[in-house]
Amino acid sequence: MKVRWEYLFILVDRLGMFSSELLPHYINGREIRNWKNGKSIEAASNELGENGWELVASNPIVEGDPVYLSQWLYIFKRPKQ
Q1: In which band, very low, low, confident or very high, does the pLDDT at 11 lie, cut at 50, 70 and 90?
Q2: What distances in angstroms separate CA 39 from CA 10, 33, 43, 49, one per listed residue?
């Protein structure tokens, strides 16, 4: 039987220009309410892992000159249920 996958896309933002704290801001294109008060990407990733999601990619979104990294795209997948 062929495995079919479902995907989850999380856009992660740095809390501030000089902050090292990364927080999920959008999930599948929908903004998370009160995202600045939410879980860290580490906590969110662990929770997703408990629910069968596997992180398959993490890509920085590069902006400006000089380069400023303020966002990352995390991509998760799991078998469709």
Answers
A1: very high
A2: 13, 12, 6, 14
